[in-house]
Each structure stands twice: as C-alpha cells, then as structure tokens.
Design brief:
The protein is of the alpha/beta class. The chain is built from 21 helices and 29 strands.
Length: 636
C-alpha cells in the first residue's frame, strides 16, 4: 500500500514539473502521433487534415521543395550590390591567387561580371546546420543601411563583423531551422553557378543534417540532368562517441556540373599503379603493364567476335566470344599488346594495359563514388604542421581537396584553371592548389572567400592572436607557402616565376562612387556619408580602390589583369593589359593627356567626371575625338 502511494506521488510531481505549457505538450503529442504533419518544427494544417482523412483540393499539387522565404531568395539574387573590392596595397601584390574577406553573397555578386563562366571548379564546405551553426541571416531587406556594413562583413568599430544582428545561431527550435539554412544557401549557389565554366564542376561538402535539402536545391539550380555524384566520404576510422543509432563515419560531397559533361577521370591511385607490375620491351616508355581478359560472356551475341586465333600451331576458340574483332586482335598480337599463355592446359588470351601511353603519358582511371579517407584526423595533422595551437579544429584534409582538384573533365588538361572556395575557413583549398602546382608544375589559381568572422574569445585561435577566421585563413596560406618552399629547396627552381606561392588580399567595401551607392534607400548614417562625398567620389577614396572598382564594373578584365601605372603631363593613369584599356583617376585632365591617350589607341578609356569639372568643352571634344578613333569613352 505504502509503495503504491509513493508511486502516485512521484507521478504527480512529474506532471507538475512538465505541464506548464499545455500547447507545447499538445504539439509534442501530435508530433509523436503524426510526425508527417510537421515541417521545420511547425504544424502544417493541410497535412493534418489529410492525416485525419479530410478531402483536400489537390489541383495545385506539384513536385518540388519549398520553404518559408524561398521567394525572397530571388529578390536577394536580383538586388544589385552596393559593395566593391578594395586592395590594401597594389604594389606588393603581384600574385594571381586571391583571398577576399567579406560576406560571400556580396562577393559573388561583385564577381558576377568579370568572372562569369571562368571558374573550372568550385569547392565549398558551408555550415552543415547542426543546430549550433551561426550564419548570416538572409531576412534583412528592410535593414537600416548603417547595418549594411555589418551584413556585408565590412566592419564594426574595430573593423570586425559583430555577431549581433545578422550573424546569429540557427537553433533547431527557431521554427525556421531548415528554411533559414535554405534561404542562406540558395542565392549563393545560384550566383556561384554563373561563375562556372560550361564544363565546370561544383563540389559541396555536407552531412545528414541537410543532404536531402541540398540535393533538392542543387537539382533545381543546376538541373537534375547535371547531377554527377553524391560521394560518400568515409571521414573517420570508426568507433568514437556512443550514439543512439549508428556511429556515423561518413559525410557527403555532392557534385554537379554546369552543363552535361562527357567524361570525368582521375589519376590512378597507388594500389592501381602497383597492379601494373609486369614488364616487356616497351617498359622504358610505357612502364609496367597488367592484363585484362579478351574473352567475354557479358556482351550480346555478335558473330564477328567469334573466330579462332592461330597460336603456336593451335587454334584458340573463345568459350563464347572475344571482346575485339578479328582485325583488331591480329593487329594487337602483331604489336605485342596481347599476352597468350597456357594455364592448367587451357589457353588464356589477355590484353596488356600499360601504365603509360605511347608518348609516356600516365593512364588515368575513373573516380569512385566512395572515398575511403583521407580522415579528419589528417586535417588536424595538416594544421599542426603549420600552427602550434589548434587554431581551426574543423578543417578539411588538404588531400581531400587535392583528390578533387586532380580530376579531369572531358579529357582536357586545363593546367591553369581557376578554382574557388567561398566558405574558405582555414583555406585548405589554397594549400592544395599550391602543393599540386609544386608537384606537377601546373598553374592552378585560387580564389578563397572568407568572412571576417570573429574567433570566440575562449578559443585557442583567439589566444594565439587571431581575431578572425579570415586571419587564420591568410596565415595558413602564408605558412603553407613557406613550407612548400622549404621542402622543395634544391629540387625546384622558384626563381623562374612559374610557381605562384603568393596571394593578393581584397576586402569587401562600400562603393567609392555615389551613383553605385544610391540604391541604398534607407536614411541613417550611411546616407549622411553620401552627402559628404566630393562630387560623386567617396571622401578619401584611394586611386587603387577606385581602380579595382572600375575594373569590376566597367572592364572586360578580371582582378589579375596586368596593371601599369604611367604618368604624362604630370597626371597618373593606368594601363590595363598593356594598354588595351586605360583608366585615369585624376581629378583634372588636360588636353595634352587626352591627345596622348588617343595616340595610344586603347579599346576603352575611363576617367572621372569630376576631371572635367571646369571644362565642359574639353569633355565634349574628348568624346568626339575618341568616337572618331573608335575608342570607347566612359566617365564615372
Ligand atoms: C565549415 S567552415 C569551412 C571550413 C573549411 N573548409 C576548412 O577546411 O577550413 C565554413 C566557413 O564559412 C564561413 N562563412 C560562413 N558564412 C559565410 C559568409 N556568409 N561569407 C563568407 N564566409 C562565411 C565561416 O566563417 C566558416 O569559416
């Protein structure tokens, strides 16, 4: 009896403690009974009706993924950016590798014109939406424009992006958990696709939290027909923490192409190479060989594949048929490309597969859809080889990226391809590119984009002096470059200028020009700044800053264009690509300079409107003369 009483009491206490929110209780009950009527943690009334057997109007039913905020995504994509890229120092940076600090949505917009269709491969490793990730929220159209700088990752008082406001944790009970993530990813993937070459590929790392949604939006943006693979990457040895279900030892890498491709191949792995262990007279050029049977049972019956091979006075017949026609077989036997041996009284006819082709070029293989490593522990070792402290514990192994970078599309060796990572973190892609270039003397170039996300004050990174993840990324590239140089001392010649181990840094900033800032509509600090502008140029804008903005907005060249500073009639001007385009950023232009430019015959001449402030006549004459000489004349 006493026992019974205690258990009732215990029950009552439990109810007391947990029944404060009856709606939540009801929702939990419904969720347990009808999980299918919940999406993103919220109840869907129509689905509930359906679950209860009520009739629904199904005329609007169609296949697809939708979420709260999907339509807004298209507005995000179309909104023109008011940002540009600023280079801290023009002189010291002559590398063709690029690191950009800022929000990748704005950066992707800034790059749209000059990098459209130029990128061979994009790799990204976005936040996986684990419930603990912070990312930029996409719902800020009505934002006060002084907040713009924060959103674009430009600065707070200290020049850092603050965590308040736009940079927030996306928790599982936000009610928009998946929607927030999808709205963050969709516009970025959409804009990224534009930057890919026709036969370019994009690889996106992801895990079980969002793989299903990512695949749906990738199908929508890239087209289901451009799906290449959902790679399973076994990223851990095994064991690890006890979980309720399975111990997860893999992630995914989704791969899509921009347009359908014909072939993807990869270098042979070490174990494959080892299988080519036989030698014949062709060894010096073609390396070792392995053999493959020339008899097949798997092809459909074909009469022309059934014939005898005459060898050592015997006729050798296939059980079913050969793989090759008679002519091809005879030719291959003549060329010593067929191995015929008797094994246990039966003839075996096999073709020789050499490691290299007739020109000594290594054979390639096909990539497998499951990557067995490299493991995440290797990423830790990569970082420890460069930093004493564990400054970025969640990086990807550089060898994973080297593997992806070594793929070849449609049999084309594109040795100076441009690759992009716009969730760059500690920049393993940059290290992978530099190492591959050092190994095979190719000239791949990278663009890494990383927000100036502040490091947590308790983190090892912060204690080691890194205020932002962008700083970690840049320092990793510097240290990796130094290591490559040290390791290659005596083996490689770095003085021929062929191995680019540097990078130039750009920061996302507001436009230097009034007209390009004007789509900022809200009043506030930002508007006040506009009024302080001298004519249409921002106060304090440096020529280099304006130069790159003009290149990005008004030139056919990209950020790696050759730039030479020249001076004539005491006025500076810049030659782009040996003078194909000329830009002058002086606040005064003379007749003599205009004549000089006309003599130089560029395709395009761009200068500031303010340079003709007191001389409308000169402006009109310049326009007429340049038109006569077929020089495109632009004023800003
Ligand atoms: C998963 S980490 C990438 C790690 C990286 N692959 C590595 O191995 O070091 C994602 C990175 O994206 C950055 N990031 C998140 N949102 C961003 C945004 N809107 N613009 C630029 N970078 C962003 C984060 O700061 C973080 O460093």
């Amino acid at each position: 009896m006493a026992k019974k009483k205690r258990s009732v009491k215990a029950k009552i206490r439990k109810v007391d403690g947990n029944s404060l929110n009856p709606q939540k209780e009801l929702a939990e009950f419904l969720k347990s009974q009808f999980p299918q009527v919940f999406a993103d943690g919220k109840i869907d009334g129509d689905k509930l009706k359906k679950a209860l057997g009520e009739e629904l109007d199904t005329n609007n039913e169609r296949y697809g993924l939708t979420w709260a905020g999907k339509n807004e995504c298209f507005r995000h994509i179309q909104e023109t950016t008011t940002a540009t890229l600023k280079i801290p120092d023009l002189k010291s940076q002559n590398s063709e590798n690029i690191f950009i600090e800022g929000d990748n949505l704005e950066v992707l917009k800034v790059l749209q014109k000059n990098y459209y269709g130029k990128i061979k491969m994009i790799y990204i490793d976005p936040p996986y939406n684990t419930g603990n990730d912070s990312f930029i929220y996409p719902d800020k159209f009505k934002e006060e424009k002084e907040d713009y700088e924060q959103r674009a990752g430009i600065k707070d008082a200290e020049g850092l992006l603050t965590k308040d406001g736009f940079w927030r944790k996306n928790s599982k009970d936000s009610g928009y958990f998946h929607s927030n993530w999808l709205s963050m990813m969709y516009p970025r993937l959409f804009l990224a696709k534009n930057l890919l070459k026709e036969n370019g590929l994009i690889f996106v790392s992801i895990d079980d939290n969002e793989i299903h949604n990512l695949r749906m939006i990738m199908n929508e943006i890239f087209g289901e027909h451009n799906f290449i693979e959902q790679i399973i990457w076994k990223n851990k040895y095994g064991a690890g923490a006890k979980t309720k279900g399975f111990i997860s030892i893999h992630e995914y890498i989704l791969c899509y192409s921009k347009q359908p491709i014909d072939n993807l191949d990869s270098p042979l792995g070490e174990s494959e190479i080892k299988k080519h262990n036989k030698k014949d007279s062709k060894f010096p050029i073609r390396g070792g060989y392995r053999t493959q049977p020339l008899e097949t049972k798997s092809l459909g019956d074909r009469a022309n594949l059934i014939y005898p091979i005459m060898y050592q006075g015997e006729e050798i017949w296939p059980d079913k048929q050969w793989v090759w026609s008679k002519e091809r077989m005879e030719q291959a036997i003549k060329n010593d490309e067929v191995e015929i041996i008797k094994y246990k009284g039966k003839w075996s006819v096999r073709s020789k597969q050499y490691l290299k082709d007739e020109n000594g070029v290594m054979r390639r293989g096909k990539p497998l859809s499951i990557f067995n490593g490299p493991y995440t522990q290797e990423a830790t070792m990569d970082m420890r080889a460069l930093f004493k402290e564990d400054v970025f514990p969640f990086s990807k192994p550089k060898d994973l990226l080297k593997q992806i970078l070594s793929y070849r599309i449609d049999n084309k060796d594109d040795k100076d391809e441009l690759v992009l990572d716009f969730f760059a973190g500690s920049c393993p892609l940059a290290q992978a590119v530099m190492e591959l270039n050092a190994e095979d003397r190719s000239k791949k170039k990278f663009i890494c984009v990383q927000l100036a996300e502040p490091c947590e004050e308790e983190s090892e990174a912060y204690k080691a002096g890194f205020k932002t993840i962008a700083e970690i990324g840049k320092e990793r590239i510097r240290r990796a470059a130094k290591k490559i140089k040290e390791e290659a001392k005596g083996k490689l010649n770095f003085d021929d200028g062929k191995l680019d181990l540097g990078f130039k840094v750009f920061r996302l900033e507001q436009s230097n020009f009034k007209q390009w800032r004007e789509n900022i509509k809200e009043p506030g600090e930002f508007k006040k700044n506009l009024l302080e502008m001298v004519d249409n140029v921002a106060k304090g804008a440096k020529p280099e800053d304006m130069l790159f903005e003009i290149i990005l907005k008004n030139s056919r060249f990209d950020l790696n264009v050759k730039i030479e500073k020249k001076n004539f009639d005491a006025i500076d001007y810049y030659n782009l690509a040996d003078g194909i385009e000329i830009i002058c950023l002086a606040d005064k232009i003379t007749k003599k300079l205009v004549e000089k430019i006309i003599q130089l015959k560029p395709e395009k001449f761009t200068c500031l409107d303010v340079a003709f402030k007191d001389n409308d006549q000169l402006k009109t004459n310049t326009a007429l003369q340049m038109e006569a000489e077929k020089i495109e004349f632009k004023v800003i």
